Amino acid sequence: MTEQRNLLRGETGDWEVVIGLEVHAQVTSNTKLFSGSSAAYGAGPNENVSLVDAAMPGMLPVINQFCVEQAIKTGLGLNAKIHLWSRFDRKNYFYPDLPQGYQISQYKDPIVGEGEIEVELDAERTIKVGIERLHLEQDAGKSIHDLAPKESYVDLNRSGVALMEIVSKPEMRSAEEASAYFGKLRTIVRYLGTCDGNMDQGSMRADVNVSVCRAGNYAKFVETGDFSHLGTRTETKNVNSIRFVRQVVDYEARRQIQVLEAGGTIDQETRLFDVKTGETRTMRSKEDAHDYRYFPDPDLLPLEFSQEFVDRIAASLPELPDAKKHRFVEEYGLSSYDAAVLVADKDKATYFEGVASGRDGKLASSWVTTELFGMLNKEGLEITESPISAEQLGGLIDLISDETISGKIAKQVFELMLDEDKGKAPKDIVEARGLKQVTDTGALEAAADKIIAANPEQVAKVKDKPKALGWFVGQVMKETGGKANPQAVNAILKKKLGVE
Amino acid sequence: MSLDESTVKKVANLARIAIADEEVPHLMNELNGILGWIEQLQEVDIEGVEAMTSSVEVALPMRDDVLADGPTGGGQPQAVTKNAPKSDDHFFVVPKVVE
Amino acid sequence: MADLTTKTIAQLRDGMRAKEFSAAEVFDQYFTRAENSRALNAFVRFNVELAWDQVKASDERIAKGEARPLEGIPMGIKDLFCTEGLETNAASRILYGFRPPYESTVSQNLLDDGAVFMGKLNLDEFAMGSSNETSAHGPAINPWRREGEETKLTPGGSSGGSAAAVAARLCAGATATDTGGSIRQPAALTATVGLKPTYGRCSRWGIVAFASSLDQAGPIAKDVRDSAILLNSMAGYDPKDSTSIDRPVPDYEQAIAGGVKGMKIGIPKEYRLDGMSQEISDLWTKSAKLLEEQGAEIVEVSLPLTKYALPVYYIVAPAEASSNLARYDGVKYGVRVEDDNIHEMYKKTRGEGFGAEVKRRLMIGTYVLSAGYYDAYYLRAQRVRKKIAMEMAAAFEQVDLLLTPSSPSAAFGLGEKSADPIEMYLNDVFTVTANLAGVPGISIPGGLDAQGLPLGLQLIAPAFGEETMIRGAAALEEAIGFNAQPTEWWR
Partner of A141 at 20 to 30 A CA spacing, among A399, A400, C362, C384? Predict the structure, then answer.
């Protein structure tokens, strides 16, 4: 359990990196967490701002029940404990994009407690990552710095939009694990419909906490729970892509090891990621150390709901990625990793099920992941824009399974469905184009006899080298215009050539 | 617990209140007077007593997720910015924020 | 024509409906009087044009027999209540020029019931003070003076403008707010009736916040009946305020009748402070006796934690205020003092925009919430607060009401107590417990001291015990029969 994963080699010995993520996921809702103005993206300046969001004197917050339900839903999706009693606190600091002078957040008593999710790294490796907590809080507004030389322009449209902050345990041990975890979270919230996961619009972003310690010290931390075994961590703010998470961890780990090996120390600080250089840099000077003076928001009462309220939400949950993954393994005989790849995107999983349902799961998986995804990738299309429907692809697989066509012909039909025969049922295409597999033994035997008779030297060869049988199969296939059933050809040739 | 001058300055900075250096000693004495008087709370036995943050003992009321009209809704950038000391094109304008 | 400003709201209401006089005549008399009483500095802003439109509408409604409960009643509004389109600055320089694009729920309730707003009333800056001396407009002046003296006295605070205006008959009634005693103490110092309802009874929406867990709106009026009439309109559930209580509003005016027969009224012995003046002590004893004569049972109760209420208050209220007032940063409204650096801009704006007392409290509040001090100050205070509330709840298992003095002294001279913050804070010693516990309290005139200054008596009730409290207050009011008026030196 505490094996030393992913050691990093330094000048003076081996290091381990330890990563925790604080992910901000914007709650999908019509209105803000504490006011009735729109939470939509992309309106004109201060268009989606209520007088509550603008912190006018005497304005008061009233919580949005749907946002509470979304947080509970997400908590359930993270296999986490839902707290029936939680509370909102004020986090106090001055900033122009924070109109109240405080952010309403949950500090000591979050709505969701500990949980755990599975994160797939590749075909062999699946790790578990612990969730520390999830809490609800307000987003801040936005300062725009390039509209005037000496001034910043403040737009409060984001101010008060509901965010879920999902805090992991410091259990990730490499850039790969951290980015895979971030991706998995995105998959989960998108399945649940609690966050749209649009990273380029800032709907999901991560604060990446990275520290390094000497090899073996993480195991000590796990044993004792004593954080002093870990190194000092830095927090890189607002990292908004899976790839950037990977870059931040790589950069920070390397930077920290260099500093430490040169005899320096790591400051506990907030850093920014520069997309252009792939580097992080310090964000705030130390003398402006923050003291957020958290205290319970006296404008709000404790957030309380019943277990029945939670149960009702639980009953309405869609099938979650992990459950779907396990079901795909069981029902369709897929490998855990293939299943994970398919469920990573809800629409892909739905497509796959449309193809695989009632058919050979492995065959369906191979056609979906290899042919279809390959084609979509090449064309730059989303699964929802696929020119070939799940029904069509399923029909194609049926034709393979009942040996109406060979795999090779199937690929031809697949191409036709993209182009000349767009939208047509594969069965009709095969019919119209005469692509049906030749299973008539007489015709195949005649073709085989013809090839054997014409190639005595090959016949002689095959006696010593049974592998040369393939050459005969190829010739017969050619002779029949690719429509012969390869298995049948194989059997006939073996008999005729006396190969075992 | 009593405040020294540097703490007074730190607290003023945290509260974003400019105070002149010559005000500090006087302010420090006043604040220490008040804090000294408050100190009597240390006498009270609060073992096992929960903190009281509100005299209202009901659960937080919740509202439906529907767009509101009026002050608690959006779509009024003019009303939002009209009292601002400085605004432009419905933006609030502040001295440049550098990170 | 008779002097309509001597009439109570009940009398004005009944007289207008009986067509004895019109809303226009009522307004004209009050407004003329208010204009001629600028020396009291009670009104900081008049609302003449809008008010006249309201008055005309009121007379039309009365003519049609469609009068609402407060039709045509001229009121003053404490300048802590946001009034749509009418400047609201909480007596702070930092909010100068702020015209709210919204109306507070309580003032809207009054408008909906037909009340006419004459203008905005003076107060301590952001309601932080007990003498009105922290107002950026200078203090409101108490219409009462010591016999044979010309010393200007405080009307109390923070609702000093409201109390002075009602006492001097500049308006028929006024809104006020009470965080630690800001309705009841000024009422006591001006021989008016001030009612602080149960926390959650009146919406806080649209009232400039001081300390959210303690602030509560209520009326200042000429007598108990008027305070009940005003409360009828002000109270009610507001879904925009999460701490507002969804509970029907009874007819508080009806509650006046009935008397105190069979009521148990508690005298908390710890309220008898060392050094309490003999006059106040005697007044207290005498009023208990009056209630007893009316058939109430007087019981001594013990509230030993009373002395900790003020220190608790001076942690909790500044802590909440330090956060509530963070929004005054020169960005969205009010006044900005420019600087190229944003944080320097904040500091200058707040340094110059806030007055000394507000700054003091913001510093205290910031300090008690800061890292390392939260547990020792804020958390401890909230735990002591819980004990105080429990102690009070236990007392109300024995008695229906508590009877106490409203303030430890009569009105004092401006400047007399402003040198020592703590001496000033002690003004709220009898009132603050009700705020911490969230229960209602009312101050009524008890009599005059040897210098001819009013003294107030307070009744405290359990949460949502307003009806019992009003019944007790009306009975005591009648028994005392206070009818003194200040000499009109200021006109």
Answer: C362
Least-confidence region, from A6-10, A260-264, A275-279, C347-351: A6-10
Domain that holds residue B19: 5-41
Cα–Cα distance for residue pair C324/C209, rounded to 1 Å: 6
C323·A293 Cβ contact <8 A = yes
E-strand stretches of C139-253: 173-178, 193-196, 216-221
B24 touches chain C (CB under 8 A): no
Q: What is the pLDDT of residues C184-219, one digit of tens each?
A: 999 999 999 999 999 999 999 999 999 999 999 999
What is the Cα–Cα distance from C426 to C412, expressed in whole angstroms?
13
Give a yes or no: residue B48 inside a domain.
no
| pLDDT at res. A286 | 46
Share of chain C above pLDDT 70, in %: 100
DSSP A109: S
Q: Where in chain A is the domain with CATH 1.10.10.410?
A: 441-497
C31 CB burial (10 A radius; 0-12, 13-18, 19+):
buried
pLDDT range class, residue A293, cuts 50, 70, 90: very high
Contact list, A94 vs chain C (CB under 8 Å): 326, 329, 343, 346
Tell me whether residue B57 is in a domain.
no
Closest CA to C94 of C281, C376, C359: C359
CA distances from C118 to C29, C52, C77 (A): 12, 9, 8
A90 touches chain C (CB under 8 A): yes
Sheet containing strand A295-296, edge to edge, reads A102-105, A89-92, A295-296
Distance CA C300, CA A413 (A): 98
> Is C182 an active-site residue?
yes
CATH class (in words) of the domain with range C4-257: alpha beta
Indicate yes or no: CB of B64 within 8 angstroms of CB of A49: no
Give me the number of domains chain B comprises. 1
**Fold of the domain spanning A441-497:** Arc Repressor Mutant, subunit A (1.10.10)
Does residue B29 belong to any structural domain of this protein?
yes
- Burial bucket for residue C375 (CB in 10 Å: 0-12, 13-18, 19+): exposed
For residue C463, CA distances in Å to A488, B95, C473 come to 91, 48, 16
Helix (H/G/I), strand (E/B), else coil: A272: strand
ipTM for the whole predicted complex goes beyond 0.90? yes
How far is Cα C44 from Cα A78, in angstroms, rounded to an integer?
57
Across all residues in chain A, what is the average pLDDT? 92
* C387 included as an active-site residue: no
Q: Where do we find the tokens 């110092």?
A: C189
- Asked if C327 and A99 come within 8 Å (Cβ–Cβ), the reply is yes
**DSSP secondary structure string for all residues of A56-67:** -TT----EEHHH
Contacts of C462 in chain B (CB under 8 A): none
B37 to chain C: closest CA residue: C311
Domain boundaries, chain C: 4-257
- Do C144 and C191 contact (CB within 8 A), yes or no? yes
Residues of A in contact with B74 (CB under 8 A): 36-38, 43, 47-50, 53
Nearest in space to C75 (alpha carbons), one of C111, C105, C25:
C111
